[in-house]
Design a protein that fits this description.
six-stranded parallel beta sheet, TIM Barrel, alpha/beta
Length: 203
């Protein structure tokens, strides 16, 4: 489902997940999915450091295993980590026990208490299992930086149009996104700071 903001129906299906933080707090929560990879993660980290911003990286276990030095850099620079399964596993074709084993294998490397499902979907059996062990973090705004139909300016405009108090903003630490992020990420951070937003991570 290609949407910048989740429907009420999704929020209803996964009621214990975090979709938006305090709507009275002038803050946003930056998240990056699918990394780490050498083609994009260093640029993202350099940009976040330049702006003095901390973010949460929902990482794929096999990428962490392959590029563990990037995982170490993310942690060393004070960012938060989250579990995004071992190999970007979708839940619809897997039993809860198989999915759970995949998540656990990833967490042996990532060591996170936060989880975000790839594609933003889980079978209810998977949801209830994951919710027992992790805080599930979804999103209030997907920038759609991964879409081949979006330009870098479109990605920036999505941030400008949909960001609000408590927004959980999702970018992607991936090959599909990095060309757009070279422009859109620093421009988005600059704009968010100009609007007076504070950048926070999850407890």
């Amino acid at each position: 489902m290609i949407i910048e903001q989740p429907s009420w129906f999704l929020r209803w299906i996964y009621p214990k997940a975090l979709w938006r933080m305090d709507k009275h707090d002038h803050s946003v929560y930056l998240t990056f999915d699918d990394g780490p990879i050498p083609e994009s993660t260093p640029f993202i980290l350099d940009t976040l450091r330049k702006f003095g911003v901390k973010a949460t990286f929902f990482m794929v276990g096999e990428n962490v295993a392959r590029y563990h030095e990037l995982y170490n850099r993310i942690v060393a620079e004070g960012h938060q980590v989250g579990n995004h399964t071992f190999n970007h596993l979708g839940s619809l074709k897997h039993m809860a026990i198989t999915y759970g084993q995949n998540v656990a294998m990833a967490n042996d490397l990532i060591k996170a208490h936060l989880f975000r499902p790839p594609h933003g979907w889980m079978k209810l059996s998977v949801y209830w299992w994951v919710n027992r062990y992790y805080k599930i973090v979804m999103w209030d705004l997907v920038t759609r930086d991964y879409s081949k139909w979006m330009t870098a300016e479109d990605v920036l405009n999505n941030v400008k149009r949909y960001a609000r108090n408590g927004s959980i903003i999702t970018f992607h630490d991936s090959l599909k996104s990095i060309d757009k992020l070279h422009y859109a990420l620093p421009a988005a951070l600059k704009w968010l700071q100009e609007q007076g937003y504070e950048f926070k991570t999850f407890e």
